[in-house]
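User: Before I run my own analysis I want an independent prediction to cross-check against. Here's the chain; please return only the structure tokens and, at the end, one sentence I can use as a sanity check.
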Amino acid sequence: MRQALQEAIAVRPRKARLEAVLRAFIAPVVERSMRGGSGWKNYIRLMGHIANLPQQEAFVMPVPENYESIVLSFIGAIRSIYPQMSEADLQWSFYFYQAAIAHILIESGIIDRQTNGAFRSSDLDKLLPKLVSFFTAGFQAFATAGRR
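Assistant: Structure tokens:
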């Protein structure tokens, strides 16, 4: 993830850089889930479930201890793209992004059911560009809200 983030930071212009940063955060996980075998698939699903648990639980603590520095690096990268964005909007936006990712990685099958199988929660490769596009627009909306 750190290497992908460094490459994303070099992308120009700003919108493409934001897309690259958001993609760098999730693409390695999607790659492992889709092509890393059943062990990776199960591990990533477990991490999605853990993300949805109360974070003060003792058994959850190793995850944020090892993950927080990476998250802060990504938040810092977005801060460098949109320095005018309020701290609250930046933090909430990234939290929304992480929450969506945690839900998506569980591959619950909700969209499968809601669309009678037309879309599959397990098709992370198709979902990835839509997720990045959707959240790019959300981050941009918050970043420009203060300028209106």
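Sanity check: The chain has one domain: 2-145.
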